[in-house]
Amino acid sequence: MTTTAAVPQGDLALLESAVAQELLHKDIPARLAYTASDGTPRVLPINHWWTGSELVMATFTGAAKVRALRRHPAVAITIDTADAPPHVLLLRGDAVVTDADGIVGEYELMMRRGMPADDADTYFDQLRADGARMHRIAVRPTWVGVLDFETRFPGAAPPAISGGA
């Protein structure tokens, strides 16, 4: 991990920060914000897997978000904790949706991360038996923000909190 206290918000080097790495690999949902097909904003919790260069999410065929993401690929993603001090990772980029013949590999990795092995085996055996088909949603970040509320604060934080003048 690199020291990123002086790295400006938006810089991809923030992906190497301890906070970003913690959140990218934590078994908590991301929140994906996108523009729906009707032009209105949407945000939804979704499991994720970090490959080292892409944040990968997955969904089953028929999901409305697939059509919307193909039409409007620009997305914003937040992964954050509720504990004090909160840690927040903010990402922006374009979603690339690809069809998978079966289960998306990263989907299996992300789901197994939070399931007992026997339960995961049963779940994936059933999905395969049912002929599940999925879409892989990959976002390569083009903008990164990190807030740890210890060394990095929102830009609008009052001086008494952020230490600014």
UniProtKB/TrEMBL annotation:
It comes from Gordonia rubripertincta. Coiled coil: none annotated. The keyword Oxidoreductase applies. InterPro entries: F420H2_bilvrd_red/Heme_oxyg, Pyridox_Oxase-rel, Split_barrel_FMN-bd. This is Pyridoxamine 5'-phosphate oxidase family protein. PANTHER family: HEME OXYGENASE HI_0854-RELATED (PTHR35176:SF6). Keywords: Oxidoreductase. It comes from the Bacteria. Gene3D superfamilies: Electron Transport, Fmn-binding Protein, Chain A. The keyword Membrane does not apply. Pfam families: Pyridox_ox_2.
